[in-house]
Amino acid sequence: MPTVHLVRHGRSTWNEQGRIQGQTPHPPLTELGRTQARAAARTLRAAIGAQSAQIVSSDLVRAQETAQIIGAALDLPVRTEARLREQGLGEMEGRLARELTAQPAPDGVPVEEVRWGGGESLLDVHRRLSALLAELATAPADHLVLVTHGDTLRVALAVLAGRTHRQLDWHLAIDNGSVHTTEIDPAAAALSG
Predict the structure, then answer these.
(1) For residues 159 and 186, what is the distance between their CA atoms, to the nearest angstrom?
(2) Residue 187 above 70 pLDDT?
(3) 86 classed as catalytic
(4) Is 72 helix (H, G, I), strand (E, B) or coil?
(5) What local confidence, expressed as pLDDT, does residue 88 receive?
(6) What residues contact 179, with CB distance under 8 A and at least 6 apart?
(7) 66-97 pLDDT, tens per residue?
(8) 171 among known catalytic residues
(9) What pTM value is reported for the model?
């Protein structure tokens, strides 16, 4: 089974402004974000060594820029994959986080299954990642580098551990540019959806 390195993109201009990004495609990395991507590349180079690896990135600009920096450092091409996008947050995207107010979940709907702002629920994200990770489990590489986003990364870790969308680790720090390494288990990825 391949070892999976989940990388959160470097700091973007919208991270800096405190804006909700979701699937907004265009916010680029800041200079700090590029520095974080280079640090992630050094971490990955040490972990992968001379073994085979593939890089797959979300197709959103902030993730692609991070992946390109990593790819250049590891001398590997980058493939983009829309299923690695951040959770879609609909009409909340582009707004400043400090402007938002807490809303209750609709009666009878678990909070993890609410499509906030008309976007995606955590269940939706879990389903798309379960399918993707089941496909990637057969990748002909020793290592998979998946460049993605904070909430998506958190859901991917749950999928890889065989946990449901209601069992996310909200206490785990997932900083910009951080690398989270785990093993991919096709049985866990297939059963957790």
Answers:
(1) 10
(2) no
(3) yes
(4) helix
(5) 98
(6) 5, 6, 7, 40, 43, 44, 47
(7) 999 999 999 999 999 999 999 999 999 999 99
(8) no
(9) 0.95
How far is residue 187 CA from its own chain's centroid? 21
Place of tokens 């590997």: 76
The amino acid present at 132, given as its one-letter code, is L
Tokens representing residue 180 in the block: 């989270």
**Which one from 9, 126, 165, 180 is the annotated catalytic residue?**
9
- 155-178 pLDDT, tens digit each: 999 999 999 999 999 999 999 999
Amino acid in position 172 = L
Q: Which residues pair with 6 in a beta bridge?
A: 146, 180
In contact, 172 and 154? CB cutoff 8 Å: yes
Which SS3 state, helix, strand or coil, does residue 116 take?
Answer: helix
Dist CA 114 CA 99 (whole Å): 20
The DSSP call for residue 118 is G
Residue of 65, 81, 86, 112 marked active site: 86
Instruction: Say which amino acid occupies 41.
Output: A
